[in-house]
Design a protein that fits this description.
By secondary structure, this protein is an all-beta fold. It is about 0% helix and about 50% strand.
């Protein structure tokens, strides 16, 4: 299973970015998916997660609720993170991850995930 994250870049505070994660080599619709981020010197933290069908729900870190939206398209094998109202503290490397054989719920812990993408850098200028 390969995950390819894309869409990062430099954005001004208050701006928006859309990240995408393309999944290949497996059965995307069977995976729970998540976005994590890691800033320099910090741990990798959950940003948002979505169940394998999407209908099982989504979950967000408190710091991004109301600003970020996670979604998935099981036909194009792609997961997306829409990021609005960006703040300097949102700057990090963003990683997408996939969990094989999940339950119907989203997963918030990094240790739950089986496959990871390479990360895409989001820089927010103040």
């Amino acid at each position: 299973v390969q995950l390819q994250a894309s869409g990062g870049g430099l954005v001004q505070a208050g701006g928006s970015v859309r990240l995408s994660c393309a999944v290949s080599g497996g059965t995307f619709r069977k995976y729970a998916m998540g976005w994590f981020r890691q800033a320099p010197g910090k741990e990798r933290d959950i940003v948002a997660a979505i169940s394998r069908s999407g209908g099982g729900g989504t979950a967000y870190a408190d710091s991004v609720k109301g600003r970020f939206t996670i979604s998935r398209d099981n036909y194009s094998n792609t997961m997306t993170l829409h990021m609005n109202g960006l703040k300097p503290e949102d700057a990090a490397v963003y990683y997408c991850a996939a969990k094989v054989n999940p339950s119907t719920s989203p997963y918030l812990r990094a240790t739950a995930y089986d496959y990871w993408g390479q990360g895409t850098l989001v820089t927010v200028s103040s």
